[in-house]
Hints:
The chain has 264 residues and is mostly helical. Mean pLDDT is 77; it is low at 1-17, 112-121 and 256-263. A hairpin with a 5-residue loop joins strand 1 and strand 2 (130-131). The protein has helices at residues 11-17, 22-30, 34-43, 45-56, 66-81, 90-109, 133-164, 172-176, 181-196, 198-207, 212-219, 223-228, 230-241, 245-250; strands at 123-124, 130-131. A two-stranded antiparallel sheet has the order 1-2.
Amino acid sequence: MFKRFLRKKTTAEAANDERLSPEQIIKQIKEGDEQLREKFIADYRPYVAKVTSGFCKRYVDPTRDDEFSIALTAFNEAITQFSSESGRSFLSFAETVMRRRLIDYVRKEQRHLKTVPYTAFDQQDEEEQIYNPLDTKMALHAYQLKQDGDDRRLEIEEYTKELMQFQISFMELAECSPKHADSRQLLQGIAQTLASQHELFAQLYVKGKLPVKELTELCGVSRKTVERNRKYIIAISLIMNGTYPYLSDYLNITIPKQGKEAGL
């Protein structure tokens, strides 16, 4: 969760420096430079991830999600199939190929569902392939529901493991959560301060203890307030500092304004 990704200068950027377009790079690849193909694909992984996430309408993890692998394979396929005589840009053509393969994948995943054909709404895409927008929309919706369920389960599992490092169980969240909205807002403000202060948050992880003194000074609250709500503050700060969209939505976590103590 705390990984930082450093990216070297890409082939695409190098190509720009040399005034080479993707189409010109593809030409060199088709002349037999397979090493350039591998480098070109590697450098355009962020582009593939962006197209895939846009299609799935959620963040797609390149290290875990099958959709990314399918799109990456389609990107390689587009390199082989691309023709400069078509008049289209390579990236536009590649996106069409990736989206088509992802639609095929979604339909395959939903092969056990009983779907109603809507042949009257059949259309042709730019490659003169027949597709049905209503059928595709239904398949995508059903697939998204299943994917959301899987993502939510994995998110809870990851969060539960992180909580265990501080001897906090996921079930304790309901017990230690403040009952009043103003109290929750105050504590979430403290948690936000902790999550945004990198040194304090690192200290929490290294020592396994809440930096009570520093938080009382930064937030203008009493030591008793911080200590009494230790588990809740830690739990919420982990969500704020991590990637837990479902839990953030479920717990209605926002970035609250700092204010006076609300009867804690």
